[in-house]
Design goal:
By secondary structure, the chain is α+β, with helices and mostly antiparallel strands. About 65% of the residues lie in helices and about 10% in strands.
């Protein structure tokens, strides 16, 4: 995976906003109409629609219009690239910390001798 993968940037950007994270938290329970998603935010509908557009551009939600009602649903598999990247970073840092721990133990043992 490229270091600056566009999809990763879109995902992290989408999750950077607390309103978008709360929308995703709600959608994790199941699909919902835009009006229901907008209600707890206290934001005007056009502002909520911009948030939904960011989530949709990142591939994290899918929307469907039926008459006058637009319904949003979460796309959980969109998080896979982010999860993969985070797992890779965790492995790198755990390895570094393990090496640091081994080095500190060696230094401490040498000081005791």
């Amino acid at each position: 995976m490229a270091k600056h993968d566009v999809d990763l940037s879109l995902l992290f950007h989408a999750l950077a906003d607390p309103t978008r994270r709360s929308i995703l938290t709600r959608l994790a329970r199941g699909p919902a109409p835009v009006s229901e998603l907008a209600e707890p935010t206290g934001l005007r509908l056009p502002t909520v629609m911009r948030h939904l557009s960011v989530l949709e551009d990142a591939g994290m939600i899918a929307t469907e219009k039926d008459g006058r009602v637009r319904t949003c649903a979460m796309v959980p598999e969109a998080l896979t690239p982010m999860r993969t990247w985070l797992d890779e970073q965790r492995a790198i840092w755990e390895s570094r910390l393990d090496r640091l721990d081994a080095y500190v133990k060696t230094v401490m043992e040498n000081r005791e001798k």
